Every structure is written in C-alpha cells, then in structure tokens.
Amino acid sequence: MSLAVVTDVIWRFSADDGWAIASHIALTTLTSLFPFLIFMTALAGFFGSAQLAENAATLLFDVWPAQVAGPISTEIHNVLTVPRSGIVTVGAALAVYFSSSGVEAFRVGLNRAYGVREKRPWWLTRLESIVVVFIGAIASLMLAFLVVLAPLLWSALLAWVPRLAAVENLVTVARYSLVSVTLGFALLIAHKWLPAERRTVAQVLPGIALTFVASIIFSVAFGHYLQHFARNYASTYGGLASVMIALVFLYTMATIFVIGGELNAALIRWHGVRAVPRPELSNNVTRLPPPKSRFPRT
C-alpha cells in the first residue's frame, strides 16, 4: 500500500503540473507578502499600535532560515516604518486585493491536487480570499500581541516566584510552539476550506503532517547549506542573490505544500472515499478527469 501511494503521489504531481503550480505559488507569495504586511501595518495603526505589525512580521520570519529572512526583513522594516494614513484608502484596498492573490494561488494548487475545477465566479472566490486576508492579518496581530505580552507576564510571575527563573528557556520553546501551532492551523484551514470540495480533518491530516515535518527539515537543511555555499548565489546572480535565495526557498516550500495535497488525494483514492461537496458548491464543481490509476486492481 505504502509504495503504491508514494508512486501515485509522484506520478500525479508531475501529471498535475505540480512543478509549474509550485512556481506560481512561490512567485505569487513573494509578490503578495509586501502588500499583506502593508495592509497589516495600516490595520495595526487603526487599532492604535503600529508596532504590532513589525512584531508580527518578525514572528513570521523567525521560522525562516536567517540567510533567507535577513535581507527580506531589512526591506520589510523599511516598508513598515513608513506612516500609513488608515485602512480606508485606495492604497490599502489595493494592498488587500494583491495580497489575496497569494490565497488564490494556494487555492489553484489544492484544486489541482484534489482533482477538481472551480466553477464559481472569479469575484466570489476573490472575495473569499480577501476575507482570508483580513482574518490572517487580525490573527497575526493577535499572535504578535500575545508574544509581546508573554515576557511582561513572565517578568511579573518571576517577581512573585523567583524559582521559575530556572525554566526560563521554556518561554522560548513556548514561543516557537505557538508559532508552529498557528502554522499548522493555517494549513488545516487551507486544505479544508480553499478547495472546491470539503474534506474531513482525518482526510487532510496526512498531507498537513507531511508538509509541516518536511518544511521544518528543509528549512534547517537549507539554512546549513546557505551558511557554506551562499557565495555561489552571489557569484551567479550578483545583486539579485537575496531575491533568488528567497524564491528557491519559497519554491521548495510550495512544492512540499502541493505534494501534501497530492498525498491526501492519493490516500482518498486508495481508500475509495469521496470528498463531501460543499452544499453551496454542489452545482459549481467540475471534477477533473483523473489520469489512469497507478494502484493495482484487486
């Protein structure tokens, strides 16, 4: 069973243009990142704490390899320190719209992996993506607020119970654990709600687990690689080296994400379980003709 599933995942990934889809996701994510952070800054300013946006961005890039996040973080800091007049502006509206393109790219990748074609009007799916951007921005700011508040609470707790200083390292562990849980929850939302069909949590968990574990392994390995061979990018791409490093990183992460969707789809096919169509989408979903099955007939 395991070998058959792995073979099917690899074959379907290529048949579904997985490499091209991953490239699309990577480039769209990079181009959507700055508009999203700009909108998040405006939103944080609306709530009276623009510094929260920079804290949220720092928290996001903490899980990236330092060689990838460093150059981008510098530019993001320059962008986020520009004063924003408010969230109800043409610039903010455009930032939200372009940020939603990243969500649309993930939707395309998951629909292709799960073998369905979206037939809802483009404006409806775009509106859903904009809602996701709003929720993502608010959730990021709330997470940043908790991370900022945690050290203050910890200091107050130490004043009452000094012996807790011996386990202070657990605060750092808790911080990264919180980020990890947030990323896992984001993957769950993506697999359950972005595609044109609804799947159970059990059906999407294998792909989420693969994406999560493989992403961590790749991030660590890529960081070690860049420590010794980053000069190869500089000698090849010159001033564009930092951009190319970010693109390679995002491209590989997007590939892992798409493979996670393909794994879920392969396991669903193996068990012969049909996904449950969304009631509101039942008339708007076209199932793509599947390639010839790679599973042995019984």
Automatic annotation (TrEMBL):
Lineage, highest ranks first: Bacteria, Pseudomonadati, Pseudomonadota, Alphaproteobacteria, Hyphomicrobiales
Pfam families, per the entry: Virul_fac_BrkB
Source organism of this protein record: Lichenifustis flavocetrariae
Tree of life domain: Bacteria
Membrane-topology descriptor: Multi-pass membrane protein
Record-given protein name: YihY/virulence factor BrkB family protein
Any single Gene Ontology cellular-component annotation: plasma membrane
Location of this chain's protein in the cell: Cell membrane
Transmembrane segments: 20-47, 129-153, 173-190, 202-225, 237-259
Protein keywords: Cell membrane, Membrane, Transmembrane, Transmembrane helix
